[in-house]
DNA sequence: CCGCCGCCATGACATGGATCAAAGAATAAA
DNA sequence: TTTATTCTTTGATCCATGTCATGGCGGCGG
């Protein structure tokens, strides 16, 4: 959630963990591999230039907390490579991951002035940082950007409703199948191949995303494997044996 | 979900079910009781006038389907009185209510060109209807409206995340307590008294909102009643005996 | 190469909430 | 007012998933 497709990307270069640098003289967006997915897709050269002007790039190792729930929300982020998870916690430590953010996704929107969730890297990650104030100024200046952002927020809302249906009404098996399909579809939108799906997150993270336990996630994977719906490949890849089967299983049909 | 605070309201007059009429000569927004909550709050007189120009008002009885999942999304709606529920269904009939819409809430946003959920009245309801095309034109013309709408969508997103935490990680008791608090807080934002909370929806609807069954909802209510946390009053009202207790119970603290 | 540590899988068992069933309440219809 | 009809409550039982415990595998540091 609150990951909004809105991004540019360039080759990760050798920046050290958490160190940021100004985008520099070259126009970074020109090399962006995910720009078409995002707000930037709709921008004129001038708008793009202005956006690039206010942005910085950052890299983080896996397992790094980008910001915590309640922190002052001064920056908007854009994933350019890697995977980020965002989650909320209950006082006793129960966790709900509300979204996994892939390259091209946008996050860090806040309601009041503090983040409503924690953002943590799942893999090594490259991010664009947009200072919130300057970003808001740009949005005011370029209604087209504003409109695009709004339409992306609407998409998010729709995805959130799907996730509520999943969390509230689907069985463990349906949840896992839906999750694999989601990853597959998101890969497809990014122009990656949809079938051996890359699943970079741990069983525990999947569990906290689907409202399950790691044990149940694990068991359900083996069950799907046993019934020849999927097979597990090297390098956190999942091969979908029968896509139609999986689609049906995801909805209990 | 996808209820966005954005409204005007006027006294319901004797319109028959589903019949709409042009807003007429009088400026309806001037009598609006919920305008301050909504997009309209930010509008200049001129903008407000233009908005009123494109709007129609409608009334529906309880239990009426305003639109169904998959219907072409040609209209945006605004609740001015009563309660609406929006939900998604699985093929076998399992249902997840993703939101209850109260006066001042906005709904009908769509991703592609069809609604992603069904909207149905819980009580008799008055609505404003905005033709989508004309509304979009207005948004382009008035960036301030666009911005306000975006900020409301962000709020929705935050609420959606809270709901995911609830659905994925809270117990039945925590869910019910959270729900009562939510209703109380929403009443408060509307300037109604927060304590005897009005709960206009059925046990079945509450269940489908919280990812439970009616039986569990019912049992949990009696359990809370027995332990003196709440008491049930006439007319679908719930009296909260100890607000702090309820707040703790809602988070498992 | 070995040993530690985190992740994953699997088994045994427990349980919160679902399901099935049926009796009150409330509301609407006659 | 009486009778249907629908909603709510409550009880008895079941089961999907959680909890607890253990072993294996793989990667990483020494």
Structural summary, described in words:
- The structure is a homodimer of 253-residue chains.
- By secondary structure, chain A is of the alpha+beta class.
- Helix content of chain A is 38%, strand content 23%.
- Chain A has 7 helices and 13 strands.
- A 6-stranded antiparallel β-sheet of chain A has the order 1-8-5-10-3-2.
- In chain A, helix 2 (132-141) crosses helix 3 and helix 5 (203-210) packs across helix 6.
- At the A-B interface, strand 7 and helix 3 of A face strand 7 and helix 3 of B.
- The structure holds a DNA duplex (30 and 30 nucleotides).
Task: Show the helix and strand layout.
2 copies of one chain form a homodimer.
Chain A: E1 4-5, E2 20-22, H1 45-54, E3 56-60, E4 65-67, E5 75-81, E6 84-89, E7 95-101, E8 105-107, E9 118-121, E10 125-131, H2 132-141, H3 143-169, H4 172-189, E11 197-198, H5 203-210, H6 214-226, E12 230-233, E13 237-240, H7 243-251
Antiparallel strand pairs in A: 1-8, 2-3, 3-10, 4-9, 5-8, 5-10, 6-7, 6-9, 11-13, 12-13
Chain B binds a DNA duplex (30 and 30 nucleotides) through residues 171-172, 202-204, 212-219, 221-222.
